[in-house]
Design a protein that fits this description.
The relative contact order is 0.04. A hairpin with a 5-residue loop joins strand 13 (503-507) and strand 14. Helices cover 52% and strands 20% of the residues. The chain has 25 helices and 25 strands.
Length: 828
């Protein structure tokens, strides 16, 4: 059939399909009655053109209302009256040429009008069909858009399921829906959500094999949708479901495929038997693709969110473990964190290596009451030993390998109950479904275990991995706490060694310095930074001589170390050092004690004994000699010589008395048994009085002079003690001026102080000894190389007396240019 003919046929068919019955009846009435009505014009005398036009109009109206057939009938019923009544000759059936023309016009009008009308109606039918198709497509798109909107807004897998089972079921024109996901091993399908099904029929199929003879299994295996039009077809194709599944009608099973393969399946059930033409199948498959992508997206988002939460948990655990070195408190907080994020129970145990027993450090549960109950139970439970073959914690500590019981066997729980009644009573209150026990290791050594228990759910691989990360951090924290305690102990020891008065030197097996405290640096004059890490002999050449004589004691009996005193040459001068040494596993430790002062004291005491012996021997010899001479009977001693000998005895006895008095006074000063009564005294008469008595016994080559500076000066002092000080200073100035010269006593005051100075032009005092001359028994010339004698107590006594009077005694001197001793006292 040609195109125009087809259009006409389509128009005719469409006209008949869409033309209402009343309209068609009017067309037929008009086709018959219309020409009859026009024929009434024959009673008048109209021009033939008017009825002709009216007849054509009737044909057109009949055609438009009823189509081509009523139009042709109208043309037939119009030509007869027109030919008979209106063509000349009227009322005659003779052949008339105008009649043939009129017939052609009427028939052509009906035919052309019908043609045009048929084509118009055909076009309108196609437009309506296209509009209906577009409406169906729009409706499908809107349904898919609603599903897509619901899926886009989904944040969790449950949101995706709700979107699919609400909007998806509606979009698919379904009655019920179901979603199942693949297990991680890809062998099973697990129903995770349903809508519109009776649970009695779903429960037996909550988990079924992918390889099973089920429509959803086939869809997941093949990646193709399974479309079933009726229950009979379902039972015929899948006999295993006959009588086992919920009665129904049409069924569609679709695979859910993500970017990396199948992730599950989607099922739609319908309320009636149906056919599934391609467009309907396409809609279902599109829904499945949207669902798979959305489910995969939210699962990835959920996995990412879970990962972030677990990383946050690990960060929090790490921060917690590194925030404090209080081990017990830190582990309690860690276990509490674990039971709020990972498990229902958390326990941390450590091995007591000395006894081989396993000690429980921490047990935690979100409920404080249950935690306290568990702590009480652990106290009553018999201790577990490391060699216990049955105990899981002991096994983990022995092997250093983790134990992951995804589902704890009941026989294991029963055996634990048989072994310990307390454990049996405890297990009646605890539901142990899944358990993870992880070793706490450090440096290849397992020293404890961390146990996680879930009461309701099963731990998965992600939980196991997270537990391993947590145990690793806990092990580091425990080891850090142990190392901190050890370091703290060593630091305290090092701190004590750093500030101990004795020098401490630690050498390793290679003879290199590992520790050199401040006292060792002070004794040797070498800083620790210059010697640590090096052999001491590289920076202290005298080290070998220092330690050569030291006998090393054993570390088990360090008290047997005997000190050896040896000289040590340093840049600041020679010192005497007492050395002891102890050898131990990691090297040798030497203790150095600076005994220079003791040595000097001993030498000073020896010098004092020698000097005192000399000082005592001389007057004693004089007294002894004079007395023996006086007792001689073999010679006659003149009276004048006898007086001289008696004067010698008196003078030397006074000298002996002075020496003994100084020794006694020095002891009294050290014992705090000397009383000083400070009163206001005029110093000028005191000075003059002392100078008068001193001139009597001063050598001829010494000139004594009193220099006043300003007004008369009065000071708060003990007159007798100050007199003794001035006598000591003048005697000292005279003794240390062996070549003679002037000794001047100066008196000055001001600013609430009074200064009494004794200046000589004698030997002078080296700078390094200007403080030592005030020490007891110290003498500037102990060997008497310049003939200067004395007990070495005068300056010591003088400074002590002046200090007790609230003043000070100092010296200014240069070698060879004399010395000036200054007594500074408070003014009266």
């Amino acid at each position: 059939m040609s195109g125009p003919a087809a259009e006409v046929a389509l128009g005719e068919t469409a006209g008949r399909m869409h033309r209402p019955a009343p309209r068609l009846a009017v067309a037929w009435v008009l086709a018959v009655a219309g020409p009859a009505a026009v024929s009434l014009l024959a009673f008048g005398d109209p021009h033939e053109a008017l009825p002709a036009l009216l007849y054509v109009l009737v044909v057109l109206v009949a055609t438009s209302l009823g189509g081509r057939l009523p139009g042709l009938v109208a043309a037939g019923t119009s030509i007869v009256p027109f030919y008979y009544f209106f063509l000349i000759p009227h009322h005659s059936w003779t052949l008339k040429s105008e009649g043939a023309v009129a017939l052609g016009v009427f028939v052509l009008t009906a035919a052309l009008g019908g043609e045009v009308l048929a084509r118009h109606r055909g076009a309108r039918t196609r437009a309506e069909a296209e509009a209906s198709s577009r409406m169906q497509a729009l409706d499908t798109a809107l349904r898919l858009q609603l599903v897509a909107d619901a899926l886009v807004s989904a944040q969790t897998p449950q949101d995706v399921l709700e979107a699919l089972l609400v909007q998806g079921v509606h979009a698919a024109d379904a009655r019920a829906g179901l979603i199942a996901t693949l297990t991680p091993d890809g062998q099973w399908l697990e129903v995770i959500a349903t809508r519109g099904y009776d649970d009695r029929y779903i429960d037996p199929f909550r988990r079924f094999r992918v390889a099973g003879d089920y429509p959803l299994s086939e869809a997941v295996r093949t990646g193709e949708g399974v479309f079933i039009g009726s229950e009979a077809e379902r039972d015929r194709r899948y006999p295993e479901l006959a009588g086992q599944s919920q009665p129904g009608h049409a069924l569609v099973c679709l695979p859910l495929a993500g970017e990396h393969g199948p992730i599950g399946g989607l099922v739609f059930s319908f309320g009636a038997d149906e056919e599934f033409p391609p467009e309907r199948r396409a809609l279902k498959l599109a829904l499945a693709r949207q669902a798979a992508l959305a489910l995969e997206r939210v699962e990835l988002a959920a996995a990412e969110r879970t990962l972030r939460e677990r990383l946050s948990f690990l960060d929090e655990a790490t921060a917690l473990l590194t925030s404090s070195l209080d081990l017990e408190r830190t582990l309690e907080r860690l276990a509490s964190l674990a039971v709020h994020n990972l498990a229902d129970w958390c326990a941390i145990d450590v091995l007591v290596e000395e006894t081989g027993e396993i000690e429980g450090l921490v047990v935690a549960h979100p409920d404080p009451e249950r935690r306290r109950w568990a702590e009480e139970v652990r106290k009553r439970t018999r201790p577990t030993r490391i060699d216990d073959d049955f105990d899981l914690t002991a096994r983990v500590m022995r092997t250093g390998e983790p134990e992951f019981l995804r589902e704890v066997p009941q026989k294991l729980i029963d055996e634990a109950s048989k072994r310990d009644p307390e454990a049996a009573a405890a297990l009646e209150h605890i539901s142990v479904r899944s358990a993870i026990t992880l070793p706490l290791r450090s440096g290849g050594r397992t020293f404890g275990a961390l146990t996680l228990i879930a009461e309701q759910r099963e731990f998965d691989n992600a939980d196991f991995a997270l537990g391993q990360q947590l145990s690793a951090r806990a092990a580091i924290a425990i080891e850090n706490a142990r190392l901190y305690r050890e370091a703290e102990r060593r630091a305290e020891a090092a701190l004590a060694l750093a500030y101990v008065g004795d020098g401490v030197v630690l050498l390793d097996h290679d003879g290199r310095v590992r520790f050199w405290n401040s006292a060792a640096a002070a004794i040797t004059g070498i800083r620790d930074a210059d010697v640590v890490g090096r052999p001491p002999s590289e920076v202290l050449p005298s080290w070998a001589g220092l330690t050569r004589l030291a006998e090393l004691a054993d570390a088990d009996a360090p008290q047997r170390a005997r000190p050896v005193t040896v000289p040590l040459e340093t840049e600041s001068g020679d010192r005497w050092v007492a050395v002891t040494g102890v050898a131990f596993d990691e090297g040798v430790v030497y203790a150095l004690r600076d005994v220079t002062d003791e040595q000097m004291f001993e030498r000073t005491r020896s010098d004092f004994v020698a000097t005192a012996s000399h000082e005592l021997r001389t007057p004693l010899a004089a007294v002894y000699g004079a007395a023996r001479t006086l007792r001689r009977t073999d010679i006659q001693i003149p009276a004048e010589q006898q007086e001289t000998f008696l004067d010698i005895i008196v003078s030397e006895t006074e000298r002996l008395t002075t020496i003994v008095s100084q020794i006694l006074l020095a002891g009294q000063l050290e014992g705090g048994r000397v009383d000083v009564a400070a009163t206001a005294i005029d110093l000028e008469p005191l000075v003059e009085s002392v100078l008068v008595s001193t001139r009597v016994r001063a050598p001829e080559h010494i000139a004594l002079r009193f220099a006043r500076n300003g007004d008369r000066a009065a000071a708060l002092a003990d007159e007798d003690k100050l007199r003794q000080v001035l006598v000591n200073l003048l005697d000292n100035a005279i003794k240390y001026s062996p070549d003679g010269g002037e000794v001047v006593v100066e008196l000055a005051g001001g600013a609430g102080r009074v200064r009494l100075s004794v200046r000589d032009h004698g030997l002078g005092i080296p700078p390094g000894e200007q403080e030592r001359i005030f020490e007891k028994f110290y003498r500037l010339d102990p060997a008497l190389t310049r003939g200067v004698g004395g007990s070495g107590l005068g300056l010591f006594i003088s400074r002590e007396l002046v200090s007790r009077m609230g003043g000070s005694l100092t010296v200014r001197s240069q070698p060879g240019r004399g010395a000036t001793f200054v007594v500074d006292l408070p003014a009266a």
